[in-house]
Amino acid sequence: MLWAGFFLHFVLASFHRHSWRALIFLTPLAGIAIIVANIARGFLLFFKETEIVLLPDWTHVGIGVVLFAALALGWSKLSARFQKVANDNPIPYQKQKYVSFSLILAAIAISPLAISSSTEQSPTNTTAIEFPEIFENEHLIPIPLSETEQRFASAFPGEIGVFKTTTGTRIILRHVEKPTRKLHSSADCLRASGYHLKNHFSETFNGWKHWKATHPDWGTWQVREQISEIQSAENWSDISSWFWAASFKQTKGPWLAVTVMEPVYD
User: Which CATH architecture fits 134-264?
Assistant: First the structure.
């Protein structure tokens, strides 16, 4: 939203031939307006993602589209008020061009909804998923889902399995067959559970994203995460990269997201 908002701001500045004085005044104001719109988006998504209000999956994108469209419309009107007109050669306000430009922006803004709707309507395999019994040469011991995990799994468009090994490693497997916003990075869940994350944005190693998670009661864990296409060797260390690749049909499901948490002993 920040990138698209500033891009819109500078396109409108060129379209209306803003003076440098107007540009210096409006640019920081644009930044504030974009941040406020994004805060509003996060606030509204809280009610959807926590299921306080039950809404279909496409509304995750839809809320952002509506707020950005409102931002774009309001900013277009404000930007038009600063249109530069030369004294010797007045520039008439070209309403037809302005309307065409607005329609193009609206079409671009709505396009993510088409992607989201098509992925939501794609059929999901209802066959029970059998998770592997061995992972990286270690036997997986199933762990019953907690009450919170069961509540999340009931709305998750796929299967979730939690396991442990004899060495104390905890492994979370999430099987999905279509792109979904409900497949979050485990970092989000760990933060929500009170963990402090370190080096979460560090470089990836061997296709895995690595970081440390520390909890005052549950100790320190070395965490790594990856999502891969089950039928091939293609993988992603970033959930967002996977989501857009899957949404644009650049990869075919099903996929398996793997989170490995290894205890760190002092």
Answer: 3-Layer(aba) Sandwich (3.40)
